[in-house]
# Entry
Amino acid sequence: MTTTETDTLRRILDYSSRADPYPLYAELRETPVARQRDGSYVVSTYREIAGLLHDPHISSDVRNLARPMPSHAGESTPAFINLDPPEHDRLRRMAMRHFGPPHTPGLVTGMEDDLTAVVTTLIDGLEDKERIDVVDDFAYPFPVAVICHLLGVPREDEPRFHLWVDALINSIDYNPETDPKEKLENGLRARKDLREYLGGLLQRRHGKPGEDLLSRMANDDGPDGRMTDEQIVATANLLLIAGHETTVNLITNGMLTLLRHPDVLRRLREDPDLVVPLVEELLRYEPPVHIIPWRAAYSDITVAGTLIPKGAQVMLMLASGSRDPVRFHEPQRFDPDRRDNQHLGFGSGIHLCFGGPLARRETQIALTELVRRLDRPQLVTDPPPYRRSPILRGPIHLEVTQGG
Amino acid sequence: MTSADNLRAFKREGRIVIVGASLAGLRAAETLRDEGFTGSLTMIGDETCEPYDRPPLSKQVLTGWVPADGTALPRRREIDAEWLLGVPAAGLDLAANHVRLADGREIPFDRVLISTGVRARPWFVESEAALDGVFVLRTREHAEGLQRALAAGPSRVLVIGAGFTGSEIASICRERGIEVTVAELAPAPLVGALGAMIGEVASDMQRSHGVDLRCGVKVTRLEGDAQGHFRRAHFDDGTTVDADVAVVALGGIRNTEWLRGSGLAAGVWGIACDTGCRALTLDGLITDDVFVAGDVARCPNPVYEYRLISLEHWANAVEQAEVAAHNMVSPQADRWPHLTLPVFWSIQFGVNIKSVGVPTFADEVVLAQGSVADHRFVAAYGYRGRVTAAVSFDNAKWLDHYRGLIETAAPFPPPGPTPDQPLDMKPVPVDFPGPQLLAQGATVVVTGHDPGERRVTAAQQHHR
# Structure
């Protein structure tokens, strides 16, 4: 280990690198598995990350870390994303029953008209504006409306839980060396408040079968039985947060990338079908989830010749893996015609993004319509200002002028 | 055809004939065009329709969810070929370089790809096989007929043979609320492909879904009524079963009879080839203008001691066809070996079964993750202390890890605890049916004494 390697990760996590972490990822990849000063391991190359995502010796349960994380302490009922089989499999199956094939195959396709309607309404409101913020005016309200509708969360409560979700996501990035303790405590409090809020909504769903996910989870008995209220709340919590930050960033990163590649933007306007491979390339080139930070080695495992000891924290640098030149031809090029695009944008293995099919369709519709209807959009600031998080990465505002 | 100029000329205006117009044939044709072959391309197929996908036939088609004619294979590009459909090939003349069709036509070629696949093994008594209500399942027509018979609401279906196809059919019957009896010669379903441990799980799955499963028995006679409709089956233990539909699911027969006399190493196990998909002659020499792909190919796999293995797997047909097509138009130095590990999947009784590697190449098996009782697990297979295959039940997302273990000859049993590990993780003998069930006797006879006169001739024992 050299100090440089440890230093690279520190620079990536530093906010000043947020606009363009990719040169630092290239530095990281020089050492595919790099031990950090604190005993954690950073994995940055495609093959190694993909291998670990399918390795049963890696645990997603933070309680298996040699030094458990303070931000997850005392969590009695984790969401399935933070659990291992067999509990993970059972809870994910029970949630998936209502969210996708084979039991609910038409969920995403059945929402097409609704998704288009929300997008159309939002863009109608932008048409005459010379200057718009793609985030506040469009990329945020759209997926949040969708996830609220899906879950059965009243849209008018959005300002309340928006604050909780923000505090919660901030606490995920919590760094005990540089961050105030207050940030962690805010996160813990927000986590508790959000759970209480969702628990309250759930109480009113019992015995009242309905179409939203909360009602379905509360009233449906599948082959795996029924979820406890705590499990439903943990699941709803996960879906609400995931619905907030990831799709917003994907749409925003997408619009930013298109504005930076006017030739591709023009092609998309002329050929809307291009959006399908384009969104895949986006998930590789500018993904919303950059890092899976908290996996634990369940046994001693050897990766690319480096031994990761049992209990060690493993950070999987997904966005770096998706730009690994060993795996992708000219990885720094945005190429919607790319073939064999097995990116890590949604992760892989048993935790493969649960909402992936929905996020894909939302982004496809959003970008097609934005490009079709905005009048000669121009980027105001490049790079735009970014959100704090190095993990869930995306612009906090994206100012665009049109009609000029 | 070795010099670069010749190859360029061949790519520009050569003649390629593909015998067998199904998945492997179609993908090979597409790849040939992708690789820049602009010469003439002829597709020969014995069925009258264009290529279609077979996995749905025993699944979505039988449930009535997808119509049989809704399974056409997607065309990934224009292939600009001449299609000779509805006429089977009847011979291959490697001296004159032409394929002879059953109607007497002779189709000349510079290079030929053989992808004639397998057909369903019919019931062994012709008059009984001809009874109304007796089915096999391989083609679109078969699936259409069987789906109609199931939709008519039979009182009971008899499935003869509990391999993958038989088990999938039994599963569909239960899904449709139809009573079903499964008769299997081996001690359990799937045991020939996956061994005794999985066989027990499969038995359990069938019985818990209400299948009348009878193992270790042989069906001796199918009995019809006066109208020629199947009514009853007799077993070798003296028992009988009354049913309206019988499905014969006894595996396939490789379509190699038409190659008799061609000089190729073709027989009941398929057509032997090298990893470059070039066919072998009976003497074991590599041909240069005859290529093989798909179910009918018997290809050595270095991971499995270079044994010649033929696979009836969808992914193998695609990958082998692409390698064969690439090699047909590439110079020696640019040729690819067909080296991918076999992958196979099945869906039955609501469980997704997937395998990687060759489970029959094993002496031990161990439950590596999950629980057999819950029908959710990964079983790892080992041969002499290394991992050679893995099979998952509703746990397919882990299989890439096991693929890595197989490719790197990792020690068996696989090391280290995992979160979802069974308490009793002890390897047990894999226990496949004995050689008498698997071996079909000699396929060749060797004659001659001096090296110059040593020759191989085929022992003709093609099954009907």
Remarks:
- The radius of gyration of chain A is 21 Å.
- The interface with chain B takes residues 50-51, 54-57, 59, 61, 64, 84-86, 89, 298-301, 349-350, 352 of chain A (CB under 8 Å).
